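S1.2 Input.
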Amino acid sequence: MLSENGNKETGILRYMELTDLKFIPRRMYYITDTPKGEIRGKHGHYEDQQYIFCVQGQVKVDLHSKDGVETVMLTPGEVVFLDRMVWAQQEYMTGSDILLVLCSTAFNQADYFYDKEEVHNF
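S1.3 Output.
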């Protein structure tokens, strides 16, 4: 999904064609200054879909879906897709991590669920 151009001497440009996305982004946010070992997220969405990009550092993403549990370790330039009804948490591994998130919907507090067992009841 992400492509790369350049080298370590001149700098690396990482890019993505937005036409490759499964949705048109309606919201974007990024997370910085999270202490090493901190766990964030701990929720899922009924409707929202997301792409989570690691811009810097290393972030461990645990995904809970009706199909089971998957753990993905993101490093710079890597991305994971979170579909509807996927409960996720992210552990920040270095203390200098930057995570960028593209969302399919505008913010809506009613779209959130916090009990990961709910993925099996939908």
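S1.4 Remarks. The chain has a mean pLDDT of 92.
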